[in-house]
Amino acid sequence: DIASAARHLRDLVEDFGDLETVEHPGFRLDVERIDCCELARRAAGLLAVRAADHGIAIQTPGEVDSLAATGEYKRVLQILVNLIGNAVNYSPDGTIVTVDAAIIDGNPAIIVQDQGDGIAEEDREHVFEKFERLGRSADGGSGLGLYISRRFARAMGGDLMVDGSDIGARFVLILPPA
Predict the structure, then answer these.
(1) 170 and 115 in contact (C-beta within 8 Å)?
(2) Which residues lie closer than 8 Å to 141 by C-beta, 6 or more apart?
(3) In this structure, what DSSP letter does residue 167 have?
(4) pLDDT > 90? residue 4
(5) What's residue 47's pLDDT?
(6) Which of 87, 119, 121, 158 stands the most exposed, by the fewest C-beta atoms within 10 Å?
(7) 148: closest CA among 17, 25, 5?
(8) How far apart are CA 81 and CA 60, in angstroms?
(9) DSSP string spanning 50-117?
(10) pTM attached to this predicted model
(11) Is residue 94 exposed (0-12), middle (13-18) or buried (19+ Cβ within 10 Å)?
(12) Per-chain mean pLDDT for the chain
């Protein structure tokens, strides 16, 4: 319990540090050529144990798949860890979280899809607001992860959005082409 509380407090401190960073007037990111598929596999690997604890499988692009984009490696990884972590948190045990890379409207994209309850259409823009948790209080999140993730995506010249699907939530991270 003490270790869990300490991790929670550390995560909150990191969120507030990131919040200060993204709201600074001179905020910008150093972008480089990155591989969306490699980042998807890496982020999924970081969350594999947490997912396995709930019988959740994370499907990622194959080892030989590659999709070049422009972005800051560390921040794209942070966005994906947030998206996949949320997908694991809100998916029923024994389901699948899919992380895929594709070209959408000429831009590289990484898509994270879960099999949870999804997000109502009227709430889809609200999830990106500061401290928004859509009434969820038991998961321990700060309500800053999606806000910060979208700010990072936009600072790299991309975007982060959520759209409808037949089942679960589907988040799409768009990045500029390499």
Answers:
(1) no
(2) 86, 89, 133
(3) S
(4) no
(5) 92
(6) 121
(7) 17
(8) 13
(9) HHHTTT-EEE---TT---EEEE-HHHHHHHHHHHHHHHHHTSPTT-EEEEEEEEETTEEEEEEE--SS
(10) 0.85
(11) exposed
(12) 86
Amino acid present at 120: A
Total residues belonging to the chain = 178
Residue in the structure block whose two tokens are 């910060």: 148
- The type of residue at 144 is L
User: Which tokens go with 157?
Assistant: 């010249």
> Which pair of structure tokens corresponds to residue 70?
């422009």
Higher pLDDT pick, 13 / 150: 150
Residue 16 has pLDDT above 90, yes or no: no
Is 121 a residue whose pLDDT tops 70? Answer: yes
From CA 176, how far away is CA 40, in angstroms rounded?
16
Q: Tell me, what amino acid is at 107?
A: N
Tokens 């194959």 found at: 62
